[in-house]
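## Example record

The block below lists the input lines for one assembly entry, exactly as stored, with component labels intact.
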Amino acid sequence: MNANKPDISERALQLLKALTERYIREGQPVGSRTLSRESGLNFSPATIRNVMADLEDLGLIRSPHTSAGRIPTVQGYRMFVDTLLTVKPLDESTVDRMRTELDTDHDSKSLVTTASSLLSGITHLAGIVTLPRREHASLKRVEFLPLSEHRVLAVLVISDREVQNRILNVERPYTASELQQASNYLNAQFAGRNLEEVRRSLIRDMKSDRADMDRMMRTAVEMADSALNAAEEGDDFVMAGETNLMEFEELCNPATLRQLFEGFNRKRDILHLLDQCVNGAGMQIFIGEESGYQMLDECSVVTAPYTVDGRVVGVLGVIGPTRMAYERVIPIVDATARIMGAALNPRE
Amino acid sequence: MNANKPDISERALQLLKALTERYIREGQPVGSRTLSRESGLNFSPATIRNVMADLEDLGLIRSPHTSAGRIPTVQGYRMFVDTLLTVKPLDESTVDRMRTELDTDHDSKSLVTTASSLLSGITHLAGIVTLPRREHASLKRVEFLPLSEHRVLAVLVISDREVQNRILNVERPYTASELQQASNYLNAQFAGRNLEEVRRSLIRDMKSDRADMDRMMRTAVEMADSALNAAEEGDDFVMAGETNLMEFEELCNPATLRQLFEGFNRKRDILHLLDQCVNGAGMQIFIGEESGYQMLDECSVVTAPYTVDGRVVGVLGVIGPTRMAYERVIPIVDATARIMGAALNPRE
DNA sequence: GCTGGCACTCGTCATTATGGAGTGCCAGCG
DNA sequence: CGCTGGCACTCCATAATGACGAGTGCCAGC
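Predicted structure tokens for the full assembly:
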């Protein structure tokens, strides 16, 4: 019927769907008798068994041991998610709640935190949201303030809700008026242009040895450069509701939990995974080992990028057991990403 | 021999000490035979048993069930910690390491984070450090910058490594020069005075209807007041190494873990507990239920306040199982508190 | 007051028995 | 040819059993 599944009958797919749904709901291996009752198809357990044997041969389901029922394999879940899933439309009241919580006055850090809690609260899984990338945000203004002989405070105003400051270590003392001149120059040059552009211009300026650059300008450029390059603050994403994962039988043994939580704290692996989602088109789902990280072997990750001005600036999603309620989770993640984007868009 | 322990023999105490040490080391109930071998005292198991019966009557030890060995009760640990403990002096290289890690250029947030990781790394428990209170820090300078019609950015310079900014929502637009005047006025008035003092002055100014206050001054005062009162950022303490706690058998069941980690995320209870330590004189130890929080029933908390200019500005410590190596942990927490204080003290 | 001895209590661990759920296969039916 | 009922078989879970060892409490004797 389809190039992807040439040798797999409609009926088998139907059964895979029923089996997966049941397993997600109950968490127990599903037997032929149960499936015969619940699949909707009217076949005897024996028939079901034959089909199940086929599905097992195809690697879509497996039995934990002889004479237990079957559970979906990663490939089984994959097929379920890709072609069988009937997503549950999100009820309007939830959307409203999210919108009101996210659409109030927030700086981006608190927006991200709230979004993360919302995700985890609604899905009862772990929520995860990256901080929005700033490269394409425009620089509204720069100010420098002298702090001490060797330190200067740089204030970068990105929007009227978003301000960053960085303390620069400088070689020599600068007077207040020097700094004032520098920021005047920079504001004239760069205000309103986006950060990435600004950074590139600065580098160009520093390389060129233009005759028309006086000492002040040189100072200004150098200072701006170090202000922009100062390490981004450590937290690249925010997680919430990790403890929700302790609810699930299949994750609840000390070894698994330990690995998982250490991975969360380490952040690096999660970050890599999320980075992949920035480029990938739209929503992405990693099931079990698909993620490639051992700590997530028993977990699935559902992510969606969120955008400002049509440009992807971050990723959000949830982490839960492979056996999560995809049909419920997917629309939630999707909606959250859209609302998040909307909340970040400049309005006034 | 002492009003507190009139009816308890030196020998019994000796045994309590040996038993506790052994239990802390091995994590298994300790029997009379073992104790007879290891206590240093030369008594037969039978004698030891008699003494142990006494200790049990006094509520210092108990057996998990008939015919298991004994383990210390909370009161047992209490007596052990208060009067029997021989603390292990801290080796110099560890202290050096801590000093170099903490004494480098840090703002207070990153200082706290590093201290917390250090504590957890060295003790293999969970480390916990509150952010330093700012009330007694002096205000070096204030600046205001206009952001948009209804927003003003306030920058509070506290030291040359410590800057805070707050976005104020204001009723009407202010011009740059108005704001400049306001900050000039405030700097003249308050620069170098401590935050608490400044806050009090501001309130006094706002209440009084002094004739010599012009509109500019009034603006300045009101703005400074809202800048100072803006909610302190959410994180009041920083934890690290929570996952270390998963190493311990006695904490490692899902229910306990869940309670514990949810408590950590909730922060409130931990915060209350730490608040008690600000006032308490010096190092404090909560053993098991002594803390009064159910989530910590199986844990002990060792804390020490850290000071700047002889004033307590924060608390740090570790959380671990009741069965932690107090004699090692106590000097570590103590040293960390001192080094932390030193690192926070203004130097230049 | 200390000690060795003895009976007793429990928890741990491995073994065994039992029941139930589920499978695979086969023969028969439409 | 596809579906079905029947049947033997496998394997997990649970409980029951017994041996073992660690540890206790108590007592009589030194």
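Residues 307 and 341 of chain B are 5 Å apart (CA to CA). Residues 43-47, 50, 65-68 of chain B lie near DNA strand C (CB under 10 Å from a C1').
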